[in-house]
Task: inverse folding
């Protein structure tokens, strides 16, 4: 008997099956041979919310949730955050290797060449209401980009695909900043490509009048590091959406818009916004015990706590806590930090959170930094989407080049009515 296998006995029939095991997984379709009657469909796995299903083989990001490990292409996130720029990490995620100086220079200049958007994109964005949520604008505008680049549909041309990759990475900060300027009624600011990727984004956000914008180096670096921390996180909800939608062979702008829509939700990229709203709602340290009591009674969640994968600590949260200190030295302490620290202290000692392995995640402190830099809360999920675009595209390309991947199409367990005959409307009760 092959040792790398499972032996399964079906007690309904007494039959035994040998199912090969590779990478600690069994191939779900190998279970289909397990049948009671010849014309049965065959055994499936039932896995709502993909709690224990590997969707693909991937060499982009490694996470060990129990040990609190996150690596991009093998490199620990802590080292990348310390030594790299976001564009360097974006190159790594997309190409598999860290760039040489020449490669980074070329990559940076190519991305910068694609930071401008068509004037009609600007006009399209101006059509949104003054109070439109910037993430809603972001999702719609990224989808609209596909109409400006019809060749993006030619997804199996490596050359054309590369062009869309550069366009997406280059344009998402511009779309994000325009969405913000729309809400403030300020004129949109065009890209300034003499600045860094992140410095230019800050300029498009905050530049006022005709003076050139000079980002504060500490804030620019902090935001760049936050971009690194958010660049990929393997098969989270939005990346799964990117792969699923992309598996229909739609263009990458439409698939990215779908991924961004998934990120918008408060259980995913919308959580950093929800954390700030929660801290506002708590208002004062004295209210924390009552708030925690409410959470434990099921009246709401402690936003920024808990993770599907990390059950020990989120390594990104550790880096962010340190970053917060650098930023607050420049901007002054965000008064909500004290509420957050006390919330964390109380929650980490509470049996409810200990038993369920609930720890602060990346979103618990990132919002406080964003707010200190000057971003309004509605921009928080958009700030997540800018760097995550690199991860989404890397997964999309990996999926397209993976011969094992087909259009995503899960199965269901049907629990509805058995066959019944049509009833004319006058006879229905
Ligand atoms: N506050 C209070 N209770 C919680 C929380 C929380 N933040 N998170 C999970 N629980 C409880 C949950 O009610 C359940 O309790 P019980 O066993 O009594 O029913 C138990 O812990 C297990 O939770 P779950 O909902 O089964 O866990 P999940 O893996 O499905 O959900 C999660 C993961 C991140 C959606 C969830 O922890 C959550 O909603 N957290 C708050 C939102 C948040 O911060 N999201 C950002 C995630 S990190 C950034 C990203 O990847 O987007």
Result:
């Amino acid at each position: 008997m092959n040792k790398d296998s499972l032996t399964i006995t079906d007690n309904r029939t007494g039959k035994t099956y040998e199912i090969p095991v590779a990478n600690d997984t069994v191939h779900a379709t190998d279970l289909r041979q397990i049948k009671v009657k010849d014309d049965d469909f065959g055994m499936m796995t039932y896995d709502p919310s993909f709690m224990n299903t590997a969707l693909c083989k991937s060499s982009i990001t490694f996470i060990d949730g129990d040990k609190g490990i996150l690596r991009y292409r093998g490199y620990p996130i802590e080292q990348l955050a310390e030594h790299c720029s976001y564009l360097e990490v974006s190159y790594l995620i997309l190409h598999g290797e860290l760039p040489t100086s020449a490669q980074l220079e070329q990559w940076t200049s190519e991305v910068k060449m694609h930071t401008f958007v068509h004037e009609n994109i600007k006009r399209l964005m101006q059509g949104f209401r003054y109070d439109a949520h910037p993430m809603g604008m972001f999702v719609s505008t990224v989808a609209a980009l596909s109409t400006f680049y019809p060749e993006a549909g030619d997804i199996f041309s490596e050359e054309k695909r590369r062009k869309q990759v550069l366009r997406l990475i280059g344009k998402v900060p511009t779309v994000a900043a325009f969405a913000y300027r729309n809400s403030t009624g300020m004129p949109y600011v065009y890209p300034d490509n003499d600045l860094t990727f992140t410095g230019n984004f800050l300029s498009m956000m905050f530049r006022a009048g005709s003076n050139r914008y000079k980002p504060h180096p500490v804030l620019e670096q902090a935001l760049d590091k936050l971009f690194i921390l958010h660049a990929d996180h393997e098969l989270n909800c939005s990346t799964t959406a990117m792969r699923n939608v992309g598996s229909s062979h739609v263009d990458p702008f439409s698939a990215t818009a779908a991924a961004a829509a998934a990120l918008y939700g408060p259980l995913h990229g919308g959580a950093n916004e929800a954390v700030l709203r929660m801290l506002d709602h708590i208002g004062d340290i004295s209210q924390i015990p009552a708030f925690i009591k409410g959470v434990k009674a099921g009246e709401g969640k402690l936003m920024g706590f808990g993770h599907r994968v990390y059950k020990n600590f989120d390594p990104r949260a550790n880096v962010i806590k340190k970053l917060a200190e650098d930023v607050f030295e420049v901007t002054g302490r965000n008064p909500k930090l004290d509420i957050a620290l006390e919330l964390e202290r109380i929650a980490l000692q509470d049996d409810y959170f200990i038993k369920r392995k609930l720890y602060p995640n990346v979103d618990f402190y990132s919002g406080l930094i964003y707010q200190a830099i000057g971003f309004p809360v509605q921009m928080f999920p958009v700030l997540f989407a800018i760097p995550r675009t690199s991860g989404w595209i890397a997964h999309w390309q990996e999926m397209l080049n993976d011969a094992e991947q087909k259009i995503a199409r899960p199965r269901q367990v049907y629990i509805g009515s058995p066959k019944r005959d049509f009833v004319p409307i006058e006879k229905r009760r």
Q: What stands out?
A: The chain has a mean pLDDT of 95.
